[in-house]
Amino acid sequence: MGNKTSQDSDVSFIQALAELLRANDLTELQVKRDYAENDSLNVRVSRQIQAAPAPQQPIMAQAPAPAASAQMQAPAATAPADPAAHPGAVTSPMVGTVYMAAEPGAAAFVSTGSTVKEGDTLLIIEAMKTMNHIPAPRAGTVKRILVEDGGPVEFGAPLMIIE
């Protein structure tokens, strides 16, 4: 088996994988390194991610409720304070990073109180270096924005409320 130096490099490698996991908002990463015959390193790094980005919004009084219900695996229908259960909720079609404007320093696509038409771009979600424009599913007024610019978003997480 390996000596102290290879153990140190293995530890550094595992720490780098953990950082990669966190930085790219991944839930699991598995790597196998073959050094020589009968000498390999098989690493699986995983983490649990809280599904609701809402607790980052200090303005929302209901923010702790959806996070708690998500951690307990309760159905969304049992938590009326959950923004995802709102009939006007626009949910994320993917995992990625939210951008409220086309580029840094530009005006946001929408803000609270904006009137939108069906198909208008609400925001962008970057996933795997691809910018995905998220369209309004219906016409209405933006009542609440539930995500932060530059923040991570999970599949199915509520992005905003349009009524």
TrEMBL record:
Biological process annotations from GO: fatty acid biosynthetic process
GO molecular function terms attached to this record: acetyl-CoA carboxylase activity
Region (Disordered): 54-88
Keyword set, alphabetical order: Biotin, Fatty acid biosynthesis, Fatty acid metabolism, Lipid biosynthesis, Lipid metabolism
Pathway in which the depicted protein is active: Lipid metabolism; fatty acid biosynthesis
GO terms under cellular component: acetyl-CoA carboxylase complex
Occurrences of domain Lipoyl-binding (ranges): 87-163
InterPro entries tied to this protein: AcCoA_biotinCC, Biotin_BS, Biotin_Carboxyl_Carrier/Decarb, Biotin_lipoyl, Single_hybrid_motif
Biological role: This protein is a component of the acetyl coenzyme A carboxylase complex; first, biotin carboxylase catalyzes the carboxylation of the carrier protein and then the transcarboxylase transfers the carboxyl group to form malonyl-CoA.
Protein's name in the database: Biotin carboxyl carrier protein of acetyl-CoA carboxylase
Native source species: Loktanella atrilutea
